[in-house]
């Protein structure tokens, strides 16, 4: 009888410990997702974008007036706020008469041009009322990323649906050297760039081996752009992103698909997301992480 009671106690202890471990893991994923949502809602998040204007060489007029080079149709926006002057590797800003903007929080008066971009060396934010914008460069294209800090896509945001958290999608993986040091990544603009690769990640799902090429962006984690057989069905059609810990000295790391997240293009048409390379399109469904958002 004592042996039976002892066995039952051990069994109960095992189930209790396992339940606590499962709850702790789910809590950590929920905390990660909470931080992810908070980041999306920040002024530099992806929910407030309302424009992406590509510049041509010379002066580019900016306002709601019909015929503006960078036309932003909003009742409260000026008909002509000013203009961007794209010369060489630089972009300058010039106020229109009777208008002024802030550059990095400082009011710029007058109609003398102010340099707001030079070879991606400056992190400059321009603003007028509750609208902000920055200059971005994508290969040979120069553009204006425009934000409305009171955008309906931000104020009406209700969250992102996710698959049920499942610890079985926390998978051990091994990093091995890639056949090449550079990974060719194409973005939604059709531009292809050579990106530094950290290596190839090997892992198994249902006893079958798969691999993903991993990008090294120089941060604390490594970055993966991937698609799977849920893409275009329950998840975003152009794939998802995931970050993984850098491997140890033996190449061991893990990939937690419960942290797979949507690229910016899932939330806005005004982003320039990378697409998964052919070798990162998995021939298996990954029902973990974020589901598709809206109709993007």
Give an account of the 3D structure.
The model has no long low-confidence stretch (mean pLDDT 92). The chain contains 2 helices and 18 strands. Strands 1-11-10-9-6-7 form a 6-stranded antiparallel β-sheet, with no helix packed on it. The protein is an alpha+beta fold and 296 residues long. It has 2 domains: 28-44 and 160-280, no CATH class; 49-150, Sandwich (Tumour Suppressor Smad4), CATH 2.60.200. A hairpin with a 5-residue loop joins strand 13 and strand 14 (192-205). It has helices spanning 2-40, 152-155, and strands at residues 49-54, 58-63, 70-71, 82-87, 90-95, 101-103, 106-108, 114-118, 126-128, 131-138, 141-148, 170-176, 182-186, 192-205, 208-215, 221-226, 240-245, 252-256. The chain starts with a helix and ends in a 40-residue tail after the last strand.
Question: Short description, anyone?
Answer:
The protein is α+β, with helices and mostly antiparallel strands and 296 residues long.
Number of helices: 2
H/E series, N to C?
A: HEEEEEEEEEEEHEEEEEEE
**Global Rg:** 24 Å
Which geometry do the CA atoms define?
elongated
Question: Cα distance, first to last residue?
Answer: 63 Å
- Percent of residues in helices: 10-25%
Number of domain modules: 2
Q: What structural class is derived from the secondary structure elements?
A: alpha+beta
Note the main sheet. 6 strands, antiparallel
Number of strands: 18
- Uncertain residue segments: none
Fraction of residues in β-strands: 35-45%
Mean pLDDT: 92
Strand order of the largest sheet: 1-11-10-9-6-7
């Amino acid at each position: 009888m004592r042996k039976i009671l002892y066995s039952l106690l051990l069994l109960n202890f095992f189930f209790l410990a396992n339940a606590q471990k499962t709850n702790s893991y789910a809590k950590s994923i929920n905390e990660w997702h909470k931080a992810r949502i908070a980041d999306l809602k920040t002024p530099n998040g992806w929910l407030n974008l309302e424009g992406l204007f590509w510049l041509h060489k010379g002066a580019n007029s900016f306002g709601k007036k019909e015929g503006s080079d960078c036309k932003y149709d909003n009742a409260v926006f000026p008909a002509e706020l000013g203009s961007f002057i794209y010369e060489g590797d630089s972009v300058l800003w010039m106020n229109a008469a009777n208008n002024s903007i802030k550059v990095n929080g400082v009011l710029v008066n007058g109609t003398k041009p102010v340099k707001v971009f030079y070879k991606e060396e400056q992190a400059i934010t321009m603003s007028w009322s509750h609208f902000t914008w920055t200059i971005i460069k994508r290969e040979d294209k120069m553009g204006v990323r425009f934000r409305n800090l009171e955008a309906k896509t931000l104020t009406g945001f209700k969250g992102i649906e996710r698959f049920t958290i499942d610890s079985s999608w926390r998978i051990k993986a091994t990093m091995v050297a890639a056949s090449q040091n550079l990974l060719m990544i194409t973005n939604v603009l059709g531009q292809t760039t050579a990106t530094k690769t950290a290596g190839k990640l090997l892992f198994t799902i249902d006893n079958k081996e798969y691999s993903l090429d991993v990008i090294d962006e120089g941060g604390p984690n490594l970055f993966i752009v991937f698609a799977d057989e849920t893409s275009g069905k329950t998840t975003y059609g152009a794939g998802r992103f995931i970050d993984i810990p850098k491997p140890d000295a033996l190449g061991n790391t893990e990939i937690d698909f419960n942290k797979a997240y949507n690229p910016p293009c899932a939330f806005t048409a005004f982003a320039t997301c990378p697409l998964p390379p052919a070798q990162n399109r998995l021939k298996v469904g990954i029902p973990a992480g974020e589901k598709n958002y809206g109709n993007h």
